[in-house]
Amino acid sequence: MVHPILDQSFFLDNTHKMRLKEEFKIEPWTFEQHVGEAVIIPSGCPYQIRNPKISVTFVLKISYPIFLFLSQFKEQKL
């Protein structure tokens, strides 16, 4: 199955980002990452990466027990 966003064949432009903000109250962040910088994306947050140059990507998925407890606590509160 082809998925335009997950396959990185389609990226959100400024028009799409404005529409997300106006219609759904979602404000996407856009930033440039430079050599030597790390980016931490919280678990569950959707993200999209565009690599204008050849790069190495390292993804580390960490689950701490306290986060599992907090997510269960949040579900109980809902």
Automatic annotation (TrEMBL):
<protein>
    <submittedName>
        <fullName>Lysine-specific demethylase JMJ25</fullName>
    </submittedName>
</protein>
<dbReference type="GO" id="GO:0032454">
    <property type="term" value="F:histone H3K9 demethylase activity"/>
</dbReference>
<keyword id="KW-0489">Methyltransferase</keyword>
<dbReference type="InterPro" id="IPR003347">
    <property type="entry name" value="JmjC_dom"/>
</dbReference>
<keyword id="KW-0479">Metal-binding</keyword>
<dbReference type="GO" id="GO:0008168">
    <property type="term" value="F:methyltransferase activity"/>
</dbReference>
<comment type="similarity">
    <text>Belongs to the JARID1 histone demethylase family.</text>
</comment>
<dbReference type="GO" id="GO:0000118">
    <property type="term" value="C:histone deacetylase complex"/>
</dbReference>
<dbReference type="GO" id="GO:0046872">
    <property type="term" value="F:metal ion binding"/>
</dbReference>
<dbReference type="InterPro" id="IPR045109">
    <property type="entry name" value="LSDs-like"/>
</dbReference>
<dbReference type="GO" id="GO:0000785">
    <property type="term" value="C:chromatin"/>
</dbReference>
<dbReference type="Pfam" id="PF02373">
    <property type="entry name" value="JmjC"/>
</dbReference>
<dbReference type="GO" id="GO:0006357">
    <property type="term" value="P:regulation of transcription by RNA polymerase II"/>
</dbReference>
<keyword id="KW-0539">Nucleus</keyword>
<dbReference type="GO" id="GO:0031490">
    <property type="term" value="F:chromatin DNA binding"/>
</dbReference>
<feature type="domain" description="JmjC">
    <location>
        <begin position="1"/>
        <end position="77"/>
    </location>
</feature>
<dbReference type="GO" id="GO:0003712">
    <property type="term" value="F:transcription coregulator activity"/>
</dbReference>
<keyword id="KW-0808">Transferase</keyword>
<dbReference type="GO" id="GO:0032259">
    <property type="term" value="P:methylation"/>
</dbReference>
